[in-house]
C-alpha cells in the first residue's frame, strides 16, 4: 500500500509536468494569435476530451508524453521546390505543409508567419516550464524541508559490530545500555554538540572505557562505553546518528540546480553508450549500471521503494516524512531537469529542433536585411520531416527498451 502511494505521487507528478510543459507552448502561441486546435496529455486512445476556447483538451491513455497541435507550423513550399516524389505523390514535406495549412481557421495567424523570435519563445516555453518546476522543487526541498545533517540524537544502536580481527561481537553501546533516541551530551568528558564531535571523541578514546553522558526523555543518564577497533581500522561503538533538517541558503539551492543541470548534460552526452549498455544487460542478464538511464516505469518503481522503505523506517528513505517527501520531490526535480535538457536537443521533432529552425530563419533574414537583399521568408522546416520520423522512431525504440529493462531488471535503491 505504501509503495502504491509513491507510484501514484510520481504518476501525478509526471502528468502535471507534461501538462504544464505543453501549456508552456500553448499559452504564448495563443497570445501571439496562433490557433491551437488540440492540447493533449498522453498518447494513444483518448480517455476524455473537452473543448476550451477553441482548443480541444484531450487526456489520452499512455502517460508517456504529450503535445499541442499548432496551426500553420510549416510554411508553403517556395517556388521551384519539388513537392512530389517519383510516384507523383506528395512528399512527406509537402504532406506536412498541406496538413498544417488546412488547420488554420479564418482570421487566425499561422505559426510560420510569426517572427523568428516569437517562434523561439513558443518552442522554448515548454522546456522553460520544466526548468521552473525543477527549480521550485529543489527550493521546496532545500529551503522548505531542509538539508539532512547528522544529529547527536541516535537513530539506532546496533546489536553487533565487526572488529578488525574479523570477529562479530555485541556492540559496545548496546552492552552499555544506550538506546535509540538518546542524545549524546559528552563522551570521555568531551562535550559533543555535533555528530563530528561524537565521532572524534570515540576515536580519541582509543579503546579506553569512557564515561558517556546522554539525555534520555529529558533526564540525564551516565553510561560507560568501551569502543573497539572496527573492520575498517577505526574505533566504533555501534551507534547510528539521527538526522536534523536545517534550511539551506539560496546559494546552496542554486548550486544544487546547477549540479543537477550539468549532471543531466553528462547523462545525455553519454546516452548512446548508456542505451547500448542497457540493451546488453537486458539481453545477457548482466548487472545494470546503477547510475544509468531508466524509463518512467523505473522512476515509478523507485518512488514505490522510497515510500515503502520510508514507512518501514529502514533503508535510504528512512528518517520520517521529511526524507520521504524530499526523496520524492528530488526524483520529480530530476525528471523535470531531464525533460528540460533533452527537449533542447536541436533535432526535430524535439522542441530544440524547432528552435534551431527559428534561429536559422532569424540569421538568414537578418543577414539579408544587412545586405539589402530580398527577405528570404520563413525557413522550410517541413523538409526535415524524414529526419523527424527517424528521430521519433529512435525515441520510441529507446522508450520500449527502457521499459522492458525496468520490468526485467529494474534499478533499485539498494
Task: Report a brief summary of the structure.
By secondary structure, the protein is α+β, with helices and mostly antiparallel strands. The chain has helices at 2-31, 92-102, 116-145, 172-176, 195-205, 250-269, 271-284, 296-312, 321-343, 351-371, 385-408, and strands spanning 38-52, 55-69, 147-157, 160-162, 168-170, 183-187, 190-191, 209-216, 219-226, 228-229, 235-236, 239-246.
Helicity range:
40-55%
Q: Mean pLDDT score, rounded? A: 90
The dominant shape is: elongated
Q: Percent of residues in beta strands? A: 15-25%
Spatial strand arrangement across the major sheet: 7-6-8-9
Uncertain spans: 311-318
Protein name: M50 family metallopeptidase
Keywords: Hydrolase, Membrane, Metalloprotease, Protease, Transmembrane, Transmembrane helix, Zinc
Main location: membrane
Family: Belongs to the peptidase M50B family.
Write structural notes for this entry:
- It is elongated and about 95 Å long.
- Helices cover 50% and strands 20% of the residues.
- It starts with a helix and ends in a 6-residue tail after the last helix.
- 32% of the residues are buried.
- The protein has helices at 2-31, 92-102, 116-145, 172-176, 195-205, 250-269, 271-284, 296-312, 321-343, 351-371, 385-408, and strands spanning 38-52, 55-69, 147-157, 160-162, 168-170, 183-187, 190-191, 209-216, 219-226, 228-229, 235-236, 239-246.
- The protein is of the alpha+beta class and 414 residues long.
- Helix 1 (2-31) crosses helix 8 (296-312), helix 3 packs antiparallel against helix 9 (321-343) and helix 6 packs across helix 9 (321-343).
- The longest helix is centred in the first third of the chain and has 30 residues, at 2-31.
- The strands form five sheets. A four-stranded antiparallel sheet has the order 7-6-8-9. A two-stranded antiparallel sheet has the order 1-2.
- Among the domains are: 122-146 and 248-414, no CATH class; 150-246, Pdz3 Domain.
